[in-house]
Amino acid sequence: MTRLGEYLQARSINKSEVARKTGLSKPRVSELTINPTAKLRVEELYLIALAIGVKPGELLEYVCEGVKLVEQK
Q1: Which GO terms describe its molecular function (predicted)?
Q2: Ranges of each domain in the chain
Q3: pTM for the predicted model, two decimal places
Q4: What are the E-state strand segments in 1-73?
Q5: pLDDT by residue (tens digit) across 1-51?
């Protein structure tokens, strides 16, 4: 499961409803929540945030938790 999937599951958000509100296909929403190698586009993240009533920045911070810059030597 992806960080997006964890976020939606923790808040009991229906993926079919997200797909309907965003215009994304149900298979795409499922891929973004299940497949860790799926690439989440910024437009998709923005639409999902609007559909579930959270600030896009909040969702971005949750989804990207643990992402770090490469240390310079």
Answers
A1: DNA binding
A2: 3-63
A3: 0.91
A4: none
A5: 999 999 999 999 999 999 999 999 999 999 999 999 999 999 999 999 999
Give the fold, CATH level 3, of 3-63. 434 Repressor (Amino-terminal Domain) (1.10.260)
| Spatial distance between the Cα atoms of 12 and 10, rounded to a whole number of angstroms | 6
52 in Cβ contact with 7 (< 8 Å): no
- The structure tokens listed for 45 are 């993240």
Q: Is the pLDDT of residue 71 over 90?
A: no
Q: Is-contact 5 33, C-beta < 8 A?
A: yes
With beta carbons less than 8 A apart as the criterion, state whether 3 and 65 touch.
Answer: yes
The one-letter amino acid at 50: L
